[in-house]
Amino acid sequence: MLATMGLITGTAAGGAALAAAPGAEALAGAGGVAGVSVSAHGAPLAVLAIALLPLLGAALCALTAPLRLGGKLPAWITVGGLAAAFGLTVLMHSGVSGLAAGEALVAHGYEWIAFQSGAGPGDRFVAPFGFYLDSLTSLWMLFVTGLGCLIALYASEYMEHDVGLGYARFFVAFNLFVFSMACLVMADNLLLLFLGWEGVGLCSYLLIGYFYKKPEAVAAAKKAFIVNRVGDFGLLLGILTIFGVFGTVEYAALFPKLAAGRDALGEPLAAWVGWVVPLLLVCGAFGKSAQLFFYVWLPDAMEGPTPVSALIHAATMVTAGVYLIARMFPAFTLDEQQWVLGLVAASGAVTALWSATIAMAQHDIKRIMGYSTISQLGYMFAGLGVLTTTGAAFHVFTHAFFKATLFLCCGAVMHGFAGQLDLRRLSGVWWVKGWGIIGAAMLVGCLNLAGFPFTAGFFSKDTILAQAFVTPGAAWVGWVLLLTAGLTAYYTFRVFFRVFVGPVEYHPGQDDHGHQGDDGHAHSSQHGHAGGHGHASGQFHPHAPRWAINSVVGALAVLSIAAAATYFVYPQEHGWVGKMVGHSTAAFAAPGEHHSGAHADPHSDAHSTDLRSNGAAHAAALGTFLGFDPHAVMYYVSALVGAVGIGVAYLLHGAGRRTAATAGADGLLRNPLVALVHRGAHRKWYVDEVYHALITLPLWVLGHVLHLVDRLLVDGLVNAVGAAPKLTGGRLRVQQSGVLNGYAVAMAGGIALVVLLVVFMTN
Amino acid sequence: MIEKIQALWPEIALFVTACVVMVIGLSPSAAVRRLCGVVTGLGLLAAGALAYTTPAVNPALPGLALYGKAMVAGIGLVLLLLASGTVDREYESFLARGGEGAGGQGRAEYEPLRSTKGEFYAFFLFSLTGLMLTAGATDLVWLFLALELTSLPTYVMVTISSGRDRSMEAGVKYFFLGAMGAATFLYGFAMLYGGTGTTSLGGIANALAAQRAAPGGQINPIAMLGLVLSVVGIGFKIAAVPMHFYTADVYQGASPSVAGFLAFVPKAAGFFALLSLCAAVGWGPTGDTLAEPLRSVLWVMAALTMTVGNALAVVQTSLRRVLAYSSVAHSGYMLVGVIAGPGPAGGGTLMTSGVAAVLFYLLAYGLTNAGSFAVLGCLERVRPDGQAEELDSIEDVRGLCQDRPLLGWALVLSVMSLLGLPPLLGFFAKLPLFGAGLNAGEYALVVVLALNSAVAAFYYLRVAAAAVLEPGQVGRGPVSVRPTTARWRPMAAFVSAAGVVALAIYPVTGWALFGARQGADARSEPAQRAAAEPALPSDPHAASVGATPPAPAE
Lengths: 763, 554
What we know:
The complex is a heterodimer of chains A (763) and B (554).
Chain A: H1 2-18, H2 25-30, H3 32-42, H4 48-67, H5 73-96, E1 105-116, E2 124-133, H6 135-158, H7 165-186, H8 190-208, H9 215-246, H10 251-260, H11 273-288, H12 297-300, H13 306-315, H14 320-327, H15 329-332, H16 339-360, H17 365-385, H18 389-416, E3 426-427, H19 436-450, H20 456-470, H21 475-500, E4 505-506, H22 547-565, H23 575-582, H24 602-605, H25 630-654, H26 665-669, H27 672-682, H28 687-734, H29 736-762
Antiparallel strand pairs in A: 1-2, 3-4
Helix pairs in contact in A: 1-3, 1-5, 4-5, 4-7, 5-6, 5-7, 6-7, 6-13, 6-18, 6-22, 6-23, 7-8, 8-9, 8-13, 9-11, 11-14, 11-16, 13-18, 16-17, 16-21, 17-18, 17-20, 17-21, 18-19, 18-20, 18-22, 18-23, 19-21, 19-22, 20-21, 20-22, 20-25, 21-25
Chain B: H1 2-6, H2 9-24, H3 30-33, H4 35-50, H5 64-83, H6 89-96, H7 117-135, H8 140-160, H9 165-196, H10 201-213, H11 221-238, H12 246-253, H13 256-281, H14 292-314, H15 319-340, H16 354-378, E1 379-382, E2 388-390, H17 400-403, H18 405-419, H19 425-439, H20 443-468, E3 481-483, H21 489-502, H22 506-519, H23 527-532, H24 540-544
Antiparallel strand pairs in B: 1-2, 1-3
């Protein structure tokens, strides 16, 4: 480790000199070759260990199963490996943060795929196993490995009912996921990114389907996998198009070409590149990040164990789409109109509102968090779409912490109350003995998600909201997002008021983890009993979280609060995250931001040095919020909206509640109109039914038709051909001597035909 | 004269070995007779070593002789493992038992007339000698004699391969149809001589170039007809449509070891000859296409060969007929590379040179094919009457992976590689054919190639599925399939399976492809360079020292 530190810090010092500056002439001229030769000496290969440690962890965890090393060994392997990876990431971060804007280190592992198809400039396909390290990479890796380590610790307790083969299986997939995610984020070329992209998809599939004996889990896993295939196909096409146009998939060679707007041959880019490439990339991003039309897999993915939901389906994997767009942002700004970004903004806003409405009517608290994740991802996409990559990345960063907190609290509840997740059957959890930390952490998470003033979620949401009003033509996005903020505050605190505070009453769920000595089914007869304080379902004793869960949830709550502090460092550059994003390829000065006005010329600003140029010239084109400067007033507006949402939630679900099953909202639901809307939202606006009718059913019918064709026609043909020799065999055997003549005649005939063809053609 | 002999050291080594083997194969001592195979192997090793002394003899394809001879020696070793124990196994064991049983009474004396061991190995070597000579041919007469030296021993090998009626019938069929094919291309050679006035390939190239350069710009119709007849006649060697009819009958009649030999040796000879002839015609001054009627004939042959081969393979139930028809289809694939030619001037690369693609494909096909036939040769089925017979039906390999895992997986690897499934060798061999075809603008033909590759999956996967998915047969009723007593044959299967995997690893593939590219280095430099430098600076071993893949742009 010491040697590693020396390596990394040593290189950090020399990093600036050795950094593969994307704008440098050497790179632009010679493509990837020059970049490789520079960085092969420059970048510390130790960073490869960030990805390889989890891979090693996966191998070790896999070994524990056949070796029958019982107990929690796989968990400790995972926690240790990820802690080491996190340590390396911190060191890498210190190395990377010394770089100037637009610079990156390239750690060249080995040539993974190299393919020569000709001598031309676009005829060499190279995809090294190497890492491209800039501040965007560093930002993502910090929370991927950090959260991964914490959640692995949490899972060590959460998964203990399954110690043995299942435990090992869980942690193998967990490690493999972190490896894939590291490949995705740190890749120095799009193909390695795609490998990681598919890898996280696979691990997501494996982990959603972890309870493989449960049909819902298997169906959910398949759904996630298949829906993602559609998006991934788009991403693959996008990568191939990029190679076709630019002749490379390596970032170090690609970004100078994007910045210069030149293709592989140095010609100016065709107009279609400016929208086809971003559109295809966005297709992949929408699938992975569960945006509209693709989002249906994410709520079902909550069938997986809760640590998985927290890590993969809230904090890291689903933000891969945001990462992809942020990383490839120069491609999105190629087109002057940037209508693909407009599409991203629109889709993000609609997704945010759409899934927030669904979340309002759900009863399963984990599903509410699932829909909330989709909604927050919508915020991030809207942020990208309205040109604030900083806001999007900041929201990713804060969301990773507070949503992980929320999920892990829900997971603790699920763990402790035998799988109970229905908010009508739980109440006052905070007041149960041993649940203090969980309740407090839940409050912190809810405040963040609701955008309560001075929380991290408040600042990150505001950055996006304000920018939506500033960027010309995006005001409606801002209004939709503002409405969503109110709804978010409502559904978040609906969960909090019903489950964590109020009268103490609880009913155990269906699965009991088999280690509590009593059976959840036995107590279902007692449901409906209006529980008094401390007098819950018979002998059922909730299973209070122990140190691992408590410490992780507590740490995450603290981190969620601490994330707000990053907004106040580097105020010139919009906080710590803003500085990180501003120094990476995602750097894009949003219109109206203090440090730039370069919106009109997207090509120059990616690595522009005149970040200080005055934005006043463009001020006339910028939008306002009802005549005020959005950046100034948005703090108050969104705080007000959030407070209204919380207040409504208190009135409907908090005030005067006697039992878990009833709340003030019940009276409202007796109104037929409200009930109709509620039923629609509760049934998720019937999207699954529509998909089933439009896509699944026709494919099912087609599949059966094709199967019949195969059975009757193809098999019939083959069988008939197979039967023919048997039928005629008797006669043929007699004429065996004639076959030679037949062959000879056929050959002679063939020769004659050829000669005729030649004579015909030459005359 | 001396220069000619200098170019022939590997052939001379093989020829001398063949003579030695013929003598020791008749020795009354069983121990000495047993040396036949070993001596043959040593001869092949010596020839392989000597292959690197080969100079560039054919200015149009300077590297062909070197690459061809090195490859023949290498694949020859695998084929030798496969061919070992083909003949005289029963007779030798009869002698070892002291002549008891099976009609012998007491001590049996060795009767040279009943033994065919010496002949078999000698013919094996003669055929390979002919193949090497084909690779180095510079003259039509030489080419004809070399092709016939390759083929004539195979007629005998087929006939004596199993000692049953079926192989005799197959041998006779093969001989008569082969004679017809030889007559066809000999007639073509004669017309080519008539149309150009010379038998030297270099002279023919000059004459044809002069005819094209002359006003009118056409190749003499007699010469063109001769070329086409030659190509069609050589089509017999590579089992291309319309000369493919014999394939299934002969492969099924011969023992699997000889069938594996037939699927590679005459085919390689045919492709060496085709490449030499096409190089004499030239793929056009800028490397675009062959002269017109010839290109069309080859085009139609390629498309039909692939399609007919695959279509017939799909409906077979006999595994050996499947492999036979698939061998027809593989010839069709390789013809795409012949049509595409060596690619742009300045030296084709991996993905642009059809000649390099063909040469590499021959290597990959030879290795893989030997493996699949070796698995068949390692097993025999017992008929209800107790007689052993060779494996034939796909049914016979059911559950092989469970019963005999090594052989089973070797078979699966071979057929998967023949199918061209990444990341096996067959994929890396087929990919350049696509690249070269596209590069030459033969889009329609590449589409046909792609469709045929998909069709091929049908029957190859059927074989693999039978071996992998079906439950094992051992322990369920009477065992009908058992291993043969040929001890070296499984080695051929394992070497092939290992090669299929190992050669697909990038640096190794890169090295082999480098060799193939050097072999195909047709127009990279003016022909004078090749004439000035007797030893081509393209020693594949020298290139492999750094284990560097071929440099991107030379």
